[in-house]
Amino acid sequence: MSDHTLIIIDLQNDYFPGGRWPLVGIEEAAANAGRVLAQFRETGRPVIHIQHEFESSDAPFFVPGSVGAQINERVLPENGEPVVLKHHPNAFRDTELKTLLDRQGIRQLTVLGAMSHVCIDATVRAAVDLGYDVTVVHDAIATRDLAFNETAVPAKQVHVAYMAALAFAYAKVIPTREIIHSSE
């Protein structure tokens, strides 16, 4: 068994067109995520899906039990791939993620999904703090336009800033083609 797993974070319907919280670039990110997922499945390496639900039915998105909170069809779990339900940005917080990884002897994580500035960032930093070796697939991740102190920050800049920070001190940050090529 491989000590390397794919972690797919929050690629759920509300982030796609027609959802309650659509992200910039989600279609391209999901297509790349699907390619990475197929590669991991073909090579027999484990995959773990992370699904976010807020704990309240008045949440802005990912309402418990809603279609929007369901994992998107492009990356649906197969063949008993575990789904870890989370209620916080960090996928390790109050979940069984670390237990699942440790039980399988996993030390290397490849992470992709959404959103760059929240759940990807929080989970990657926590993973590194817990001693995992992390690779982030930057073009298989999407985010949103943000604003701070009346300054608009386009999604592309949000994404690049977070990927630069993760690459600086936390993870190897690579494109889909590199992870696909390295797995062949």
TrEMBL record:
Q: What Pfam families does the database record attribute to this sequence?
A: Isochorismatase (PF00857)
Record field: transmembrane: none
Q: Can you give the residue ranges of the Isochorismatase-like domain?
A: 5-153
Q: Which GO terms describe its molecular function?
A: hydrolase activity
User: Keyword set for this entry?
Assistant: Hydrolase
Q: Which PANTHER family match?
A: ISOCHORISMATASE HYDROLASE, PEROXYUREIDOACRYLATE/UREIDOACRYLATE AMIDOHYDROLASE-RELATED
Q: What is this protein called?
A: Isochorismatase
User: Whose protein is this, by species?
Assistant: Komagataeibacter sucrofermentans
